[in-house]
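Dear colleague,

Following up on Tuesday's group meeting, I ran the structure prediction for the two-component complex that the binding team flagged. I've pasted the input sequences exactly as they went in, so you can double-check that nothing got truncated or mislabelled along the way. The structure tokens for the whole assembly follow below. Feel free to forward this to whoever is handling the docking comparison.

Inputs:
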Amino acid sequence: MLFFSYFKELVGKEVIVELKNDLAISGILHSVDQYLNIKLENTRVVDDTKYPHMLSVKNCFIRGSVVRYVQLPPDGVDVDILHDATRREARGG
Amino acid sequence: MSWSGPDNFPATSLADNLDKKLLVILRDGRKLIGVLRSFDQFANVVLEGALERITVGELYCDLPLGLYIIRGENVVLIGELDLEREELPSFMVRVTPTEIKQAQKAEKDATELKGTMRKRMEFLDID
């Protein structure tokens, strides 16, 4: 559940989600669930000339299983808190 | 048995998108457009009045499909279509299904040719 909790902290921040089909979408993280499905608002396709059909899509749902990377804002991680949480998770709770 | 389960949806639920016109992108690259009538936690979705939108370069075509249930594992992305905006850039031209099939074939042949050319040139070790 660590990454689920982590993503929940990032709600409202601007992220870029790159999918396994190379489509990269930037947008405001609206919500995330246990499967790491992601909902983005105010989306923009990074290479929009290659994907003209995405022009009128402003909000979208992305299935967690097709995500390759999520690029986070530089201030998206407090390393100390993340380390603590990681150790706690590794100890099993 | 009741059809609907508990109504405490997770935050990512597609409930807000019910009865809206959506674009569904599938793992094989196909793009389906239709009205969302149902969904579940796996992103299985029911699209009413579905059509497949085929785009090749600046050409596009909509093939009517009807009522579709899409198995969740094939779903990549579900996008809400903003009705205020143009669905496609203005330079895109609508063509007939026959024309789009020809264009698709031409594109496929071109990429295949590129592939074989590249293979033949591999011994030259250029990139």
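The longest strand of chain B covers residues 45-56.

Cheers,
M.
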